[in-house]
Amino acid sequence: MRAHYRARGLAESDLAPDPYQQFTRWFEQAADSGLHEPNAMVVSTADAEGRPSSRTVLLKQYDERGFVFFTNYASRKGRELEANPYVSLLFPWHDIARQVIVSGTAERTGRDETAAYFRTRPHGSQLGAWASEQSVPVASREELDAVYARLADRYPEGEDIPAPPQWGGFRVRPETVEFWQGRENRLHDRLRYARTDATEAKWTVERLSP
User: Fold this and answer.
1) What is the number of alpha carbons within 13 Å of residue 186 lying toward its C-beta?
2) Is 80 exceeded by the pLDDT of residue 198?
3) Candidate from 17-26, 91-100, 124-133 with smallest mean pLDDT
4) 93: nearest Cα among 54, 43, 42, 35
5) CB 58: neighbour CB atoms within 10 A?
């Protein structure tokens, strides 16, 4: 199986001054194209021994401080990020022959920020965050459904549900952000922003060979 890319290229002169503005451009174009869940990203982590793991997670917020997703802190990714904060995010926009790859470090969001986002989730998703001990073995589907049912009885529709203490956000502060544009003959465009200052938002752009 082999796809032939013929998309318009990506030149340095096309780029926004910083990766967040450039991400916004591409994210809006991905959404306008009809791409399903353009905020879906592959989050790759590694444990203290360097053994990697990956999973698909939904991006929920981003700004000049970084990219935010939410999870159970006791999950595999949560435990790995506590031991090793280095993380990679991959947005695989295959249908428009684009990828965005973010590399950086993750830190927990504040509880106020977590609670504010949790209140925006659908009622069922709020219950699910309480019902699931993410990444922990469960005896059966029936057991998981029974836990959910008990929570639904305790917190009926319309009643406020507090954010679980073991559940919250991670903000990924990027060190590099690569924008990948598929091109003909596998001569893809790869332009990468690299942070040049640890405290200020200063970036350089470098072109990578495909």
Assistant:
1) 2
2) no
3) 124-133
4) 35
5) 11
Q: Which of 80, 72, 74, 71 shows the shortest CA–CA distance to 53?
A: 80
For residue 158, which amino acid is it? Answer: G
**pLDDT band, residue 102 (cuts 50/70/90):** very high
Residue 199 above 70 pLDDT?
A: no
Cross-strand partners of 108: 170
Give the Å distances, CA to CA, from 199 to 17, 141, 172.
17, 47, 15
Q: Residues, the chain, total?
A: 210
C-alpha 166/C-alpha 43 separation (Å) is 19
Tell me the longest C-alpha to C-alpha distance in the chain: 59
State the residue for tokens 């991006």: 59
- 101 pLDDT above the threshold of 70: yes
Residues tagged active-site: 186
Separation CA 125–CA 131 (nearest Å): 10
In the predicted model, what is the mean pLDDT of residues 178-190? 94
Contact 1, 78 (CB under 8 A): no
**CA-derived radius of gyration, the chain:** 19
pTM listed for this prediction: 0.91
